[in-house]
Description:
Largest sheet: none
CATH superfamily of the largest domain: Farnesyl Diphosphate Synthase
Amino acid sequence: MREVDLLEARQTTRQAARTFSLACRLLPRDVRDDVYLLYLVFRCLDDAVDDGEPDAEQRLAAVEAWAAGGEPRSREARLLETLAQRHPLPRSAFTDFCAGMRDDLDGVPILDETDLDRYCYRVAGTVGIVMAHVLGMRDPGRALPAAAALGQAMQRTNILRDIDEDLQAGRMYVSRTAIERFGGSLAPGERAALLRDQIARADALYETGCSGIALLARGQRAITAAAAMYREILRQIERDGYGARPGRAVVPTRRKLLVATLAR
């Protein structure tokens, strides 16, 4: 691992994932930098897809090949190879993550809640599974489904927070059946019932996800804080009137820190 990679990983996490970055400060020192590097890998692949970079497909293929046991042939794969020497990385999780990225590349529509659950698992539940392996588990059979659920809850939170931003970029992650069931509109002032339904679904996943935090071998405080801060975005959406106005819900940093401090 090069020092320049670590410096970029720290900076990228702090700039692109401010809530997650706050929680990372609570991680044990011996894994914190490795978590930053993992975030860099996930973020770089996600950005390559979202930004339509010409080598996005090639980079996904390189990670897929590494996950299948091949030699690392891209920067992301080389970083993962280095991390795999220190942690029991579940390679199948990276295959599933890349499948989610390919869904975005191919513009696969999200027709119903089953489609959305599958997408959220691929792009975020897998991240929870990887994190659980890095932190260690007392009972993998129970901890892994909970870790996946927590990742899915956070992804659903991101989707609800970013509805307007995604629509402007030509993307829609709320399922079509949900939109139709609650009036057929995502416009500000016309989506309160839809958001209430989707918030309830995310909260249920948080309950499942948080129930598994105690099963982690370490890093429990950091993951508890991350879950609490992300979940507070849902409460901010509620305080803002369930999408009465356009724009993303923003939780002030001071409130995030308070929520993280009080989280149990």
